[in-house]
Write a structure and sequence with these properties.
281 residues; seven-stranded parallel sheet; two-stranded parallel sheet
């Protein structure tokens, strides 16, 4: 099995899941020093999605590929052509852009990219499985951990907007299972956490787990735009539109994690408990 994005937050966990299942793993990394971050059992090959011919060595002898797209769209047709040449099937980490819920129906450049790759795979005749996680629980690390570590309020918009954070470990476990077990070709799986929680509730849960109160301060959209320094403006606009659209609407929930793994998805509280040190000074 070839894992692309093998040092990322999902790909790295997919590698671990495959090793635990006794499946031979090859990992694609963009730099040779990526091997230092992977287990010694992994066959590490250097390649880059922006240079399609660099993938040939990684794809030879591979039965299935876990595809995480981490590049501009220009080389997607050539990459998919190579995947169709070498691999029997692909498990693609996409997004729930087809889900009829207002949170997922806002204009989103990444969703357009994913949809285009899915069309390319279908046109190439690839036996593909699409895994569509919703909001990651680990977003809390990028969004709120800096303020919480500094004992500052979390200043954020749309505190009442509800999402269903999914643990990246559950996403990786589903992706790995669909890679090494037969019967999932053609599957299209939306993954969510087990409960709908407002953003303010999620911040409160972090405080509960840490044993201290974490204050939530509501920002207006314009205030958030001015404070989101370093964020790509399309990402800011997409998130604001998604949160606004879901106000008063519970998050979309699926049973997919349980259906595939036979175990309940991890709760957001459990995810926080397992990552509590990341929120502490």
């Amino acid at each position: 099995m070839l894992v692309t994005g093998a040092t990322g937050r999902v790909g790295r966990l997919v590698v671990d899941e495959l090793i635990a299942a006794g499946v031979p793993v090859r990992a694609l990394t963009r730099r040779s020093d990526g091997a230092a971050r992977l287990p010694p059992k992994v066959d590490v090959v250097v390649g880059d999605l922006t240079v399609p011919e660099s993938l040939d060595a990684a794809l030879r002898g591979v039965g299935a590929v876990f595809l995480v797209w981490t590049a501009p769209p220009a080389t997607a047709p050539a990459v998919v052509e190579r995947l169709a040449t070498y691999a029997r099937r692909v498990v693609f980490l996409s997004a729930p852009h087809q889900t009829p819920h207002p949170f997922f129906q806002q204009p989103n450049p990444m969703a357009e990219l994913y949809a285009g790759i899915e069309r390319l795979m279908a046109a190439a005749g690839l036996a593909s499985t699409v895994v569509r996680p919703g909001v990651f629980a680990s977003n809390a690390l990028f969004w709120w951990a800096p303020a919480i570590r500094g004992d500052s309020p979390v200043r954020w918009p749309y505190g009442a907007a509800e999402t269903a954070p999914v643990d990246e470990r559950d996403v990786a476990a589903v992706a790995a299972r669909t890679l090494y077990q037969e019967g999932f070709a053609g599957g299209d799986f939306v993954l969510t956490g087990p409960e709908s929680l407002s953003q303010a509730e999620q911040v409160s849960i972090i405080g509960d787990v840490l044993g201290r109160r974490v204050k939530f301060e509501e920002l207006s959209p314009d205030q958030f735009r001015s404070e989101a320094e370093g964020w790509p403006r399309p990402a800011v606009d997409m998130l604001l539109a998604a949160w606004a659209a879901t106000m008063g609407v519970p998050a979309f929930l699926t049973s997919t994690v349980f259906d595939i793994l036979g175990a309940q998805p991890r709760s957001f509280r459990q995810w926080v408990a397992d990552h509590a040190t990341a929120f502490e000074a």
